[in-house]
């Protein structure tokens, strides 16, 4: 197989928060996944999932959800999402079938028009099992009237319906050329980020809406051990003492539960034993520290304005 036989390119998944982007990304890459990233200082410093489809390598850019920004972190996340879309070879807009054309979707359609004509943008209507067929047809017609999508897909990211067809189409749309990354390579730096995200997800699930943007997780140390296991030390930053108590929970029950769930997911992902140690630190101004944004793969300067 020569380089002229292969194809490779970046695909940005955009949409409102909770539209199913991460679920779709996980479904797309499946078990054959490489997690890679560029230097964290750049706006393209996203955690990427790499899917192989035939001789095509599809590098998915999992962007933050697009919403109306109110604070620095919000603005940096939205800037990162649009940066990912502007840099991608193909953009896929996810819209939840049961939410329809919300104000948020309307803003995204306006933003798509601003990042330039000629860009390949596909529409993926997600969670199709939640509405009847006539509603789906009406939503598709309304969205395609509002923007010139090159293709429309009806999918259920959670159940897998329509996902194969979308992945096959993307494989044919990314540019011809050599693969961008080696197959099945997981580098140290991105794995640190992935591990931090896994713990942050478990905290979010456990705490629900108590600390939405008030905490962040960083992998402080990653130590490979001779027995094949690894020791991971992570810091959880919160903005005030009261939040520390919430994260720790009564007699440390919350942090123990989060640690156990995160460790089990990491062990399943890495296929080996993991020793995970979590520490909670109060850092009142972490939302205004450039280093924290770099750790999250965001550009601190994008939070201005």
The CATH class name of the largest domain reads Alpha Beta
Number of domains: 2
CATH architecture of the largest domain: 3-Layer(aba) Sandwich
Proportion of beta-strand residues: 15-25%
Number of helices: 9
* Overall geometry: globular
Strand order, sheet with most strands: 2-3-4-1-5-6-7
CATH fold naming of the largest domain: Rossmann fold
Write the CATH homologous superfamily of the largest domain. Answer: P-loop containing nucleotide triphosphate hydrolases
Q: For the residues shown, what is the average pLDDT?
A: 78
Structural class: alpha/beta
Give the helix/strand layout.
Elements: E1 7-15, H1 21-29, E2 35-36, E3 48-53, E4 56-62, H2 72-87, E5 90-96, H3 103-114, E6 120-126, H4 133-146, E7 151-154, H5 163-173, H6 188-207, E8 215-224, E9 230-238, H7 241-248, H8 253-270, E10 274-282, H9 290-295
Parallel strand pairs: 1-4, 1-5, 5-6, 6-7, 9-10
Antiparallel strand pairs: 2-3, 3-4, 8-9
Helix pairs in contact: 6-8
If you had to describe this structure to a student in words, what would you say it looks like?
This protein has nine helices and ten strands. Strand 3 and strand 4 (56-62) form a beta hairpin. The protein is globular, with a radius of gyration of 20 Å. Residues 31-45 and 185-189 have low confidence and may be disordered. It has a seven-stranded mixed sheet, with helices on both faces. A three-stranded mixed sheet has the order 8-9-10. Helix 6 (188-207) crosses helix 8 (253-270). The protein has two domains: 3-173, 3-Layer(aba) Sandwich (Rossmann fold); 188-303, K homology (KH) domain (GMP Synthetase, Chain A, domain 3, 2-Layer Sandwich), CATH 3.30.300. 37% of the residues lie in helices and 23% in strands.
């Amino acid at each position: 197989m020569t380089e002229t036989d292969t194809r490779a390119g970046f695909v940005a998944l955009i949409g409102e928060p909770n539209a199913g982007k991460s679920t779709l990304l996980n479904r797309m890459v499946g078990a054959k996944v490489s997690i890679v990233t560029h230097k964290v200082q750049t706006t393209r410093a996203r955690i990427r999932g790499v899917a192989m489809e035939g001789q095509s390598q599809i590098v998915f850019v999992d962007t933050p959800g697009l919403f109306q920004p109110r604070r620095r972190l919000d603005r940096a996340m939205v800037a990162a999402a649009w940066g990912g879309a502007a840099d991608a070879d193909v953009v896929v807009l996810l819209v939840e079938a049961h939410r329809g054309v919300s104000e948020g979707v309307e803003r995204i359609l306006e933003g798509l028009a601003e990042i330039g004509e000629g860009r390949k943008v596909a529409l993926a209507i997600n969670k199709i099992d939640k509405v009847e067929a006539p509603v789906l047809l009406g939503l598709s017609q309304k969205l395609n009237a509002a923007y010139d999508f090159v293709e429309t897909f009806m999918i259920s990211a959670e159940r897998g319906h329509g996902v194969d067809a979308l992945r096959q189409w993307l494989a044919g749309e990314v540019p011809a050329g050599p693969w961008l990354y080696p197959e099945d390579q997981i580098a140290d730096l991105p794995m640190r980020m992935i591990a931090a995200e896994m713990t942050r997800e478990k905290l979010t699930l456990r705490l629900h809406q108590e600390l939405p943007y008030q905490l962040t997780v960083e992998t402080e140390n990653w130590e490979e051990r001779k027995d094949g296991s690894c020791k991971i030390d992570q810091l959880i930053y919160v903005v005030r003492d009261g939040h520390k108590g919430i994260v720790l929970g009564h007699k440390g029950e919350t942090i123990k539960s989060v640690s156990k769930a995160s460790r089990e997911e990491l062990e399943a992902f890495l296929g080996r034993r993991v020793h995970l140690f979590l520490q909670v630190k109060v850092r009142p101004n972490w939302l205004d520290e450039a280093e924290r944004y770099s750790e999250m793969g965001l550009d601190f300067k994008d939070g201005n304005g």
